[in-house]
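Morning. Coffee machine broken again, so started the prediction first thing and wrote up yesterday's gels while waiting. Chain of 291 residues, entered below exactly as on the submission form.
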Amino acid sequence: MNKKTVLNFDGLYGDDYGRYSAEYIFLELISTRSQIFNWTIKPHIHLHLFQIFVLTKGSVLFQEALKEQQINAPCILLIPPTKLHGLVYTPDVEGQILTLSESIIEEIFKTSQSIWKTFEDIRILKDFEDDFSFENILRQLKNIEDELFGDHPERGLMLRVILTQFFICLHRLTRHVEAQRSDSLMMNYFRKFQSSIKNSDYDKSIPAFADEMNITPVHLNRICKAIAGKSAIELVHQNLVNEAQKYLLHTSYSVSEIAYLLKFEYPNYFAKLFRKHTGFSPMEFRRQDRK
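Came back before lunch.
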């Protein structure tokens, strides 16, 4: 998109006369503004405003700079300043939008780099569990609403306290979701590696396995250690030993022939590896089974 065509608002979407304030905090229903624009919020940016969209019902087609995706409630969208975003809601949408100036977040978390890292990019949160529940987010948001629209002494100070709790809760939820995705990705790599080991019909190096999955050998080893407690080469060797056991138990091939079938250049190296993993030589293993 040409920069000259990007919609840019100092205040809320559609407010051409809105002006930025360092103390800006605004909370409204999603339907309040979106229905005015026929449920379509065109791609735009806010230079100094941070927004949290909390959807409790319906869905939204969320548009970023280079992609778009359909998201169903319950979900939370975190939109930092300067991030291009557009939204097309279903008419049954329910939820709230919390908008506040980036200076408020800077003041609260000026010494916390981990918090800033969490909120420097667009986040879409839609995986909730008991310890990181959507209901907890709603309770936090209700506390903000009560204080924001109330008339209590030290209102500004209390809002800072509640906002601190709210953003720490979002930070923890974000980190939890990222950890889950990382675990899932790691398991996918591990399964691909296991499949590649079993389907490989030639002597393949660990760098070759890693290159096949577009990761580094170091990354592959870390994955294997984390999931199986063994290095990548140990898992390759374990698979070879398992295959060797099948040949020893169910065929009459000699040890040298089995070594050849398993792509070992030297039968004595095969025998040494087999003993390391089983505690027996290949012939001892065969005799043990036939007693």
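The first strand starts at residue 7 and ends at 8. Going to sketch it on the whiteboard this afternoon.
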